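Lab intake sheet, docking and co-folding queue.

SAMPLE TYPE: protein with bound small molecule
LIGAND NAME: adenosine-5'-triphosphate
LIGAND FORMAT: SMILES
REQUESTED OUTPUT: full 3D complex as C-alpha cells
PRIORITY: normal
SUBMITTED BY: R.K., bench team

The fields below were copied directly from the construct record.
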Amino acid sequence: MSEIILEARDLELRFGGVLAANGASLSVRANERIAIIGPNGAGKTTFINLCTGYLKPQSGRVIFAGQDVTGLSPRTITRRGIGRSFQIPQLFTDNTVMENLLLALSAREGTWSPFLRLDRHPKREEMIALLDSVGLRDTAERPVRELPEGMRKLIDIAVALALDPKLIFMDEPTSGVSSHEKFQVMDTLTRALDARATTAIFVEHDMDVVARYASRVAVWSGGRIALEGTPDEILNHPEVRETVIGVGV
Ligand SMILES: Nc1ncnc2c1ncn2[C@@H]1O[C@H](COP(=O)(O)OP(=O)(O)OP(=O)(O)O)[C@@H](O)[C@H]1O
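RESULT FIELD (auto-filled):
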C-alpha cells in the first residue's frame, strides 16, 4: 500500500455559532482519488481552506509528507507541494491563459518583477505541454475572459498543476462543464494527474463523476466525515441516497 501523504487530524474551526470544521479528519494515501461529497454548508470548502492555509484551524493538525504544515501561509503550503483549484476560478481574466500560467510560476519561484518578459519566459514550452496534457493547447494565447466557465475551471487546475504539486485539491472541477463534456474533461484530467503521479482530492456534486473517477468517497456532514468507503459502498448507502443524492430508497 502506498504511503500516507496527507493527514488531517481533528480540525476545528468555528465561525460565530457555526462549527464549519468539527473534528474533521482524513488520511490520504499517495495516488488516491478521493471525492468529497455532502450537502451545501457541510464544510467541504472549509476543509480545503484549512488544509491549504487559506483558513487556520482553532485546533487540530495538518501533516503533509510527514511535516506539520498547520497554519502555514497558502504560499508556503503551495511550495511544500499542495495545490488547489477553486470553486470560482482565481484567474487574471484580462490576461491570456499562458500569461496566467507564467505569472503563477514566477510568483512561486519568486522571480516576478514588473519587467518580467512573459513572451520570452524560459518555461513557455513546458507550459504548452501542460496545456496540451489537459486538452487546452489551443487556448494558450486567448484572454481568459473570452473562455466559458467550464474551460476556466480547467485552466485554474492547469495553473495549480504548473506548480507541480504532489497533491491537488479541486473544488468542484466539473461545475460549469456541460453534462455531455464532463466525462471527456475528467478523462483528460485524470490522465494528466496519472502522468504526474499527483494525488487528488475533489469536491463533487455530480454522482456520475464520483462513481467513475473516485477511488474512495468521503461524505461530509456537520463539519466532519460522516461516512467513507468505496464509491459503490457510499453511492448505494440508503442514508447517503436520501440525504446527499436526493433519491429515496
Ligand atoms: N468566511 C465565513 N464566515 C462565516 N461563516 C462561514 C464562512 N465560510 C463558511 N462559513 C459557514 O461554514 C459552513 C460550512 O461552509 P462551507 O462553504 O465549507 O460548506 P460547503 O460544504 O463547501 O458548502 P457548498 O457545497 O455550498 O460549497 C456554512 O454554514 C457556511 O455558511
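REVIEWER NOTE: The chain has one domain: 4-245.
SIGN-OFF: pending second check by T.M.
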